[in-house]
Amino acid sequence: MSWQDRLPVLVGVGQITQREPDPRAAMGPLDLMAAAAKAAAEDSGAGPALLAALDQLTVIRLFADTSPRFVSPFGKQTNPPVSVARRLGADHVRQHVYTWPGGNMPQYCLNRLGEAITRGEVEAAMVVGAEALSTQKAAQRQGVALDWAEDLGGTHHTWGVSRRGWSDLEDRHGARAAITMYPMFEHAIRGRLGRSVADHQAAIGTLLARFAAVAAANPLADRRAGYGAAQISTPAADNKFIAHPYTRLMSANAFIDQGAAVAMTSVAKARSLGIPPDKWVYLHGCADGHDHWHVTERRDLHSSPAMQQVFAQAFDMAGCTLADIGVLDIYSCFASAVEVACDALGLAQDDPRGLTVTGGLPYFGGPGNNYVTHSIAEMVQRVRARPGVKGLVTANGNYLTKHSAGIYSTEPPARPFAPADPALLQARLDAIPRPPLVELADGAATVESYTVSHDGQGPVNAVVIGRLGDGSRFIANTPADAALWQAMQTEDFLGRRGQVANDGRINRFTPA
């Protein structure tokens, strides 16, 4: 078989957004996955024949199996890929995969599947995921008992990294969630740009309003109101701060019902299934890598060396540059993720090509670990509509930690599918120096970044990452002082001097 016949090609995509108000009538996550997978098969033109031909099925990890916050009270699905395969009649699947968490995982899995198809180990594969957290939440509020439990037995493989995203030290200081980490990146970005708190808040609103406008035109999007910049950036009764500087409308919304699937085959298999070439989309370039695992280990809090090198490697494989890209979807869980990616790409935030094809996680929806399956599905539709145009999808997991990228086009690649060994890139990334980290800090200190966390009533905690006089880094909380927390949201605390002390477990920073 020629290398051209072994090229991996995306042949079908499907997306579902469920808006069923009655939890009893709504599909659960496994049924949403099956619906998206069937839609992808229909999109290919091969329909049930594609499903019957699948020899690999990957399910993106449910949020219920990712975070205690999202655990379902309606029963556990013990083997999602086997359950989905059963619903599809995909009886020839030889490898069932259930991933570890991460927003990077859909693109990561397609990168791995492309390699497996090229080696002849897989002929037809599907990546699928879904969340039904809106239905889950509605059922809990209404006191409706659902039965989502399913145990079909069997085994599955796991792909990705099982390691949690935060350290014990970060955890002790209340820094284990995305809504704590990304606001600290945001303030660090503000400092690098030299902006005031108010000016940067307005700039975030301007950036995200462009995403909201795309979502307003997308019938699959969750928030379609087309929020303006001031609406997004201004705290209000219906747009409260979650963690400064982020308001509710700046944050990814996980409580939605969405599913998406992408089918990938070899060119030879696509041809044998009768899938027309105008459905084929090639993965021209891809790469994966991660930054230092814990945020407190990073060289700074406003950039991502891994993003820079992952993007560069994907472009090198595709034999193109950013100037050759016609369509983009930049991972957008929070504004800081977009800003860091734009910086890594050398891409203006107001680039006329736009930064999203879906509307982004705050407005299209943040369906757990599966958003990027949606962005890839939408990208496939966009590049099919513009033959020869290249599209870039970026993906991010944890806290600007894990990164994947894919470059797509209907035009066949000029060379075999051969990504560089990810281990070589990772070795370079692992060698980047880390600042010394002090677990129990004492002495004069300076704020490197910070955030103030809120509940529904107002501020409840503040986290500071700072430097001691010798340049070593620490993480701390502040005293529980409402006036201080208010000041931290109106004044610029970057570079603020003070004293840090510890009680043998927790560091406490008190500004001068």
Structure notes:
The chain has 512 residues and is of the alpha+beta class. It folds into two domains: 8-165 and 254-430, Thiolase/Chalcone synthase (Peroxisomal Thiolase, Chain A, domain 1, 3-Layer(aba) Sandwich); 443-511, OB fold (Dihydrolipoamide Acetyltransferase, E2P) (Beta Barrel). It is 32% helix and 22% strand. Strands 3-2-4-7-1-8-11-10-9 form a nine-stranded mixed sheet. It has a five-stranded antiparallel sheet with strand order 14-13-12-15-16. α7 (178-193) crosses α12 (335-345) and α11 packs across α12 (335-345).
What characteristics describe this protein?
2 domains, 15 helices, alpha+beta, 512 residues, 9-stranded mixed β-sheet, OB fold (Dihydrolipoamide Acetyltransferase, E2P), Peroxisomal Thiolase, Chain A, domain 1
Question: Layout of SSEs?
Answer:
Layout (H helix, E strand, L loop, with lengths): L7 E10 L11 H16 L3 H6 L2 E4 L20 H9 L6 E4 L6 H14 L5 E9 H10 L25 H5 L5 H16 L3 H20 L12 H5 L7 E3 L2 E2 L9 E10 H6 L8 E10 L14 H14 L6 E5 L5 H11 L25 H15 L4 E8 L4 E8 L12 H9 L12 E13 L2 E11 L4 E5 L4 H9 L6 E6 L4 E5 L1
Parallel strand pairs: 2-3, 2-4, 9-10
Antiparallel strand pairs: 1-7, 1-8, 4-7, 5-6, 8-11, 10-11, 12-13, 12-15, 13-14, 15-16
